[in-house]
Write a structure and sequence with these properties.
about 160 residues, mainly alpha, 9 helices, elongated
Length: about 160
């Protein structure tokens, strides 16, 4: 049994135990687990064997990870481009990303409008500079340019409507 360098009296956990502990907190992709285990000082073969074993036991599943990530990021108000970029960092194929985003059944325009309301309140704006700031905010959150254009102009249009 290996000893930990920071505490020689305490044995080092196996790669499997370390990965299982990470998965107990939240879903992780295979790539993410591999990176975290390597950073923790675990060797390649031990890491691969641990991740394979976790997959066989259905504790780690890249498909489930991707579905959870799409749902959670959409619920947090991120747009499809930001979610797509994050999925790519976890080695999810492009075709699968398209399927996941389509299956998410999110009204991206409503989500963008909700983010504007949460960030800037319910009041509209007609100042072009302020509208550009709001558009940049939505673009940084990963919304498509067409969605941002509709959302920022819809906000202006709503502000121009008389209050009943």
């Amino acid at each position: 049994m290996k000893r930990r360098p920071d505490n020689p009296d305490k044995p080092k956990r196996s790669a499997y135990d370390k990965a299982l502990g990470l998965l107990a907190r939240r879903e992780h992709s295979r790539r993410e687990l591999k990176t975290k285990l390597r950073q923790g000082g675990y060797e390649g073969e031990e890491t691969r064997a641990a991740i394979d074993r976790l997959g066989e036991q259905h504790y780690q599943d890249d498909e489930r990870f991707a579905e959870v990530l799409v749902r959670s990021r959409a619920a947090q108000g991120y747009g499809p481009q930001r979610i797509r970029a994050e999925l790519k960092t976890h080695a999810v194929p492009d075709e699968r990303i398209r399927q996941l985003l389509d299956a998410a059944d999110v009204d991206w325009e409503a989500s963008a409008l909700d983010q504007l309301r949460r960030r800037y309140g319910g009041k509209g704006v007609s100042d072009p500079a302020e509208r550009a700031r709001r558009a940049q905010f939505l673009l940084r959150r990963g919304f498509a340019a067409a969605t941002v254009r509709r959302a920022t102009h819809a906000e202006v249009d709503d502000a121009a409507d008389p209050i009943d």
